[in-house]
Each structure stands twice: as structure tokens, then as C-alpha cells.
Amino acid sequence: MSDIRDQQEEFIAILLQRAVSETAEVCDQCGKCSSSCPVSKYIEGFNPRQLIAKVSLGKLEELLRSELLWTCTSCLKCKERCPEQISPYDVILVLRTLAYRAGYEHPSGYDDFIKAVVEKGLSSEPQQVRARKGGRRDRESLGLPPVEKPKDMEAFHENLKKLS
Description:
Helices cover 57% and strands 2% of the residues. The chain has nine helices and two strands; from the N terminus they run ααααααααββα. It has helices at 2-26, 32-36, 38-42, 48-56, 60-65, 77-81, 88-102, 108-120, 153-163, and strands at 129-130, 136-137. It is globular, with a radius of gyration of 19 Å.
């Protein structure tokens, strides 16, 4: 089992490096991804442009061990602003998957998040939000439909197994 997992991780790493190497050749290092990134403004060391460069240089081990990998907020500004349509966000998702599967450190709440999705089909239960004029409002009072869980949990679990 361990050999298969190692082979999967190596395969993912090769695919990632090839994909980014091809796009890194197109990347002119304009910095639009980094300048629009809300995380890079507040977290020292997080830089989408440098992330693409590190992957293309084969520095995967360094990235997989880095806590910075988990700080991306998934805002997709890097993907939207890139004139070459390179997506550091997509690369980050692959790196996170690879890091998790390889057993590297990940945020403590990550396991709880995964457990909630598997058990309930939701990442979290709907919550009330604070209104500007005080008090709290729920989905109904905001005119939002109720949150629906998967209708067929058995099929949902089967699909999760296929994905993992």
C-alpha cells in the first residue's frame, strides 16, 4: 500500500511539475498575481509568483513542508489578473492534496473540516450573521433558500471514495 501511495505522490509531483513548467515558460513574472493577492499583503513569504517559480524549479519538497501553502484564501484574484491565464490557485490545490497525502503538517482544523464534509455533506452548518444595525439574521430572513444536504448520502459517500 505504501509503495502505491509513493508512486501516486511521485506521479502527481511529475504532472504538477510538467504543467507548471509549461506555464512558467509563458509567465513573464509581471507580478499581477502577487500584487492582487490579499494574503501576500499580510503574510510575509506568501507570493503566488514565487510559488510558480519554485514549482518550475522543482522545489516541491520545500513547498510541501511550508505552512504558507495553507494560507491561500481561494479568492482567485491571481487567476483573474494573470494575462497568461496561469493559476497559482490551481497549483496550490494540487500541492495541498499532495502534502496531505504525503502526511505533511496541515492546519489543525483541516481534519475536522474533512470529517464534517464526509459525515454531513456540508463543510459547516449554516450560521446566523450579524446585521449592520445589530442583532443576528438567519438565511430565511435574508431571503436565502435553506441549505440542502446531499439527498442521497450513500451515493455521496461513494463519490467521495472515488475521488480519494
